[in-house]
Amino acid sequence: MIRVLVLALALAADATAVAAGMGAAGRGASHVLQAAVLFGVFQGGMAGLGAGGGTALVAWIGAFDHWIAFLLLLGIGGRTAWKAWQGEDEEDEQAEGWMGLLLLAVATSIDALAAGITLPAMAFPVVPAAGVIGVVTFVTSALGGAAGRRLGETFGRNVQILGGLTLCAIGVHTLVDHLTHGT
Fold first, then answer.
1. What is the pTM of this model?
2. Spatial CB neighbours of 14, under 8 Å, sequence gap ≥ 6
3. What element of type H or E holds 63?
C-alpha cells in the first residue's frame, strides 16, 4: 500500500502544480474543484488503462505523449500569463473552461498511463490502486488550487503570471525530460 501511495503522490505532482497555477491565475473555487475532479478521474483512469492495456498501448502513445503535454501546457500556460500581463480577467467561459480542463487533464495524466504498467507488479489489486491514485490526485490538486488562489489573492497579477509560466515550465520540462532521458 505504501508503494501505491508513493506512486500516487509522484503522479499527482504535475496535476497539483497545474491546479495551483489555476488558483493563482484567479480561477474560481468551483473551477479549481472541477479541475481537481477531472485530474483525479483521468489520473486514476489512465493508470488503470495502463495496467490493462499493457506495453503495446504505452509504446504507441509514448511516441508522442510528451509533445501533447508540451503543447497543451505551453499553450494554456502562455495564454494565462499573457492575459494576466495584459490585465485581463481570467473569467470562465463555459466552452473554453471545460475544453481547457479536459486538455489539462489529458496533459497531466499521460504519465499515469505508463506508470499503470507497474501496478500489477505491486501485489496490490489494480482497481483499488487506480482509485488511490485518483483520490490522491484529487485531494492534492484541490489543496494546490486553494493554496494557489490564496497566493493569487495576496500577491495579485505577479502570481498569476508566475502560475501561467509554471504551466509552461512543466510543459518544457516534460518535453526535455522525455527527449533526453526517454521517460
1. 0.76
2. 108, 111, 170, 174
3. none
